Amino acid sequence: MKDLINNIVNEFRASIDINQAFLKTSFEESNLIEFKKSLHTKGESIDKDYLKTISGYANNKGGVILFGIDPDSKELVGIKDVYENLDNRYISTTIRDGLDGNFEFTFFTQTYLGKIIGFLVVKEASVKPIIMKVDSSSFKVGDIYFRYPAQTAKILAADLRKIINEEIAKRLQGLLGNIDNLVKLGDSAAILNTSSGEIQTGDKLPKLILDEKILNKLNLIKEGTLSEVEGAPAYIIKGEIELGNVEIVKTVPSIITEHDILEQFFDRHCEAPDVVLEMLVFQNSPYLPFYFFAQSANLSKEEAIDFLNSIDKPDMNKLTRNKLVNRLNKFEYKKQGKILEGITESCDCDIDLNVQVSSVKDTYKEKCSHGQVERTIFFNTLLNKFELKDEYISAYPKNIIEAFSSLLSETLSEDPEY
């Protein structure tokens, strides 16, 4: 993804014509590029109408949406300043709620002579098709979109048939490969059921069971493929499986997303903290967890600052790196964000959070923002020691951390398992 981003930025910069009366790009809309004059958000998510283009890219070869460019004149008009370095959770919330399937994406911004341009890069999905799971004025649940030259449209029967045939072929190829390996290994072959831990060794050897504690910690994949679980450390079983002698090779993930960082932080377990620390400077948000990974890497405050300053790569986000260093230099535990007095509601698992926040905001007498109400509801949930849904932790880490900072030390010390 880093190389792809670097290529897109370099090619776009080279396409800008500064000799005109206004900034203009020589890029044309295509099956890989789409222009949007502005960027629209609702609450803490982007407009779900963008899902058509996003899913269309994922179902084809991927692509990029360029926000802040007039599709008619190709002029760089820019997006609002408030969207500069917009947190990727705005995009991930919309995609998670609106699309069925998994694929990689990232959002970042670049500034050209005062014009802020947003880049939403979408990679081709490894498993297709990506399907709509929400309704909108322009699409319905179950719709499948595909990116065609300069437009996104409902997929044609021929293209859908091609996708399905390719998926069948991939699975058949994988199955045939496994069968071929079993034939080559002969009596030495054993099959591991990754759900139960049972190792089938045939009639000649006793049945083996892999300890559940070990099984839960392993993400077993066949050699030559990637793990389908984002951010999960991969373990590869090579060669023959012998009693008491299984060779396992641990690999460090090379692509780490914002979701992976948060997942490892909340799980309080990280296999490669130094890799995560380096990847933090490539994120758009400087407010992702940092101290946990620095501690896991056995770095002091000064060593962590030196480590960040030593990273000097052309595609990193220097603004994020500088703000992380600033966080370390000025670190002081204190309250972050305002908690609104008079609001006593906690998270209601039976109601959509945005609906609950809007309802509370409408009844609150004083002027307040959506984020302040959201933070206060999280604070009340933590104060009452109610459990937070995993999806909230992934989607709203900043407000949850800010809410946590407002808890009194006495409250935390009351319960050692808090």
How does this model look, in words?
With 418 residues, the chain is of the alpha+beta class. It has 4 domains: 2-155, Methyltransferase, Cobalt-precorrin-4 Transmethylase, Domain 2, CATH 3.30.950.30; 156-187; 258-329, no CATH class; 353-414, no CATH class. Helix content is 38%, strand content 15%. It has 15 helices and 18 strands. The strands form 7 sheets. The chain has a 4-stranded mixed β-sheet. A 3-stranded antiparallel β-sheet has the order 13-14-15, with no helix packed on it. A 3-stranded mixed β-sheet has the order 16-17-18, with no helix packed on it. A hairpin with a 6-residue loop joins strand 1 and strand 2. Helix 12 crosses helix 14 (397-405). The chain is globular, with a radius of gyration of 24 Å. Residues 29-153 form the Schlafen AlbA-2 domain. This is Schlafen AlbA-2 domain-containing protein.
Summarize the model shown.
By secondary structure, the protein is α+β, with helices and mostly antiparallel strands. The chain contains 15 helices and 18 strands.
CATH topology grouping of the largest domain? Methyltransferase, Cobalt-precorrin-4 Transmethylase, Domain 2
Q: How much helix, percentage-wise, in residues? A: 25-40%
Shape: globular
Largest sheet: 4 strands, mixed
The SS-based structural class is alpha+beta
What is the CATH superfamily of the largest domain? Schlafen, AAA domain
Distance between the termini: 38 Å
The CATH architecture of the largest domain can be given as 2-Layer Sandwich
User: Low-confidence segments, ≥5 residues, pLDDT <50?
Assistant: 220-252
CATH class of the largest domain: Alpha Beta
Gyration radius (Cα, Å) is: 24 Å
Tell me the number of strands. 18
Mean pLDDT: 81
* Oligomeric state as shown: single chain
Give the strand order, joined by hyphens, for the main sheet. Answer: 3-6-9-8
